[in-house]
Amino acid sequence: MGKKVLLAEDDVTMVALLKTLLKMEGYQVVALDADANVPDAVRRENPDVLLMDVYLSRQSGLEILELLRRAPDIHDVQVVMTSGMNVKDECMRRGANDFLLKPYMPDDLIGTLKRNIKNP
Questions:
Q1: Mean pLDDT (the chain, rounded)
Q2: C-alpha distances in angstroms, 110 versus 27, 99, 117?
Q3: For residue 106, is it within any domain?
Q4: Which domain covers residue 80, as residue numbers?
């Protein structure tokens, strides 16, 4: 069974592309609704990595990241933040494991995921 990637991304086209790409690479993919409760989804899905946009339609990825890092049961989930603006420093300061600047190439995404997924 492939590693599980949880997607928190509000761009429907991006979600479709990511699902296709990641499934081709052998990952399990769970895409969240833009307004989903991400911490609850992390608890439910127990992903190997969370790929989350900094700017979700009605939520801040940075605020969600802080909530995740403060939650005792899920604080160690691997989180890769993505954004069209270079806010890497801010993301890393708030606890992200990695950052991808959009638009990124599929190879960059796969490389980043491989770096951030802990192998058993």
A1: 95
A2: 10, 13, 10
A3: no
A4: 4-98
